[in-house]
Amino acid sequence: MKKAVITGERRAEIVEAPTPEPKDDWVVVKVLATPMCTEYKMFVAGHRAAYLGHEAAGEVVAVAQPGKVTVGDRVVVMPQYPCGQCALCVAGDYIYCEHTIDVEQFTGSREGSATYAQYLLKPDWLLLKIPEGVSYDMASLALCALGPSFGALDAMGTGAFDTVLITGAGPVGLGGVVNAKFRGAQVIVAEGNPYRVELARRLGADHILDPADPAAAQALRDYTAGRGVDMALDCSGVVAAQRFCIDATRRRGQVAFVGECSEPLEIRVSPDLIRKGLTVRGSWHYNLSLYPKIMHVIQQSPVVGQLITHTFAMSEIQAALELSASQRCGKVILHPW
What we know:
alpha/beta
């Protein structure tokens, strides 16, 4: 099979690799849509990478035994390789599994574990069937485009009477706009990238703040009649934005973090949590039971298709990564075939 790799700083190419074989309840999926995520960061930094990507939608083409899917099924491929047996996995919260499987140890090779490739290998219980009439590209939005924000907004119970602040309008934050507007909320977006500001507006954002503007905090207070937002969702992974979420949220409000960040954030127990009464949560993805609801958004939202701003053949991986690195895009989809 063919797959994409990063060979150096701002350099990517297509190489040949062995095609994976099914084993036990692990099946082979022909990848027909690969959403791009944060792989461009390795591309910019010059980190070589032979196994790229964690998002995919495609068709089951080989199975080793009868199971939850059959050859010909159209599926969305959930990320990671959780154990499938612990309490978290059984409850549908597989993303938090502490006993993930070593693919190379189980199969003898890492091939099939990455999605920038023509085929991948996955446990059948992590393959969720695509409803009839939904394309592979659109179905793939059920991964990182819509998934992280959907899980967070669902946990917070976001509804039509809420005002939601979203910090960071990359693909995840833009997905948050789609999800929050579908729930009927008023949406404030903090973003400075002009391309993404315009895209956020087209997706339904009601108000835009420039995070570099010293008056942004006051503008938010004015917009909410001095009260603050009901909920805040950080999709940027930037400490200043995370702190802005905490400060901008009203008393007894809720804050969720979905943007990855390893830098320290100061949360003051008394003024932020006890006396303000905030609920603060981390949210990585979503429980498997929510998949039908995400598909409902994909099928019914009038704007969700605008999340996909560019598509590339996988053979154009160099151009695709350059565009992702420019951040003048929403969700970018690769087509391995």
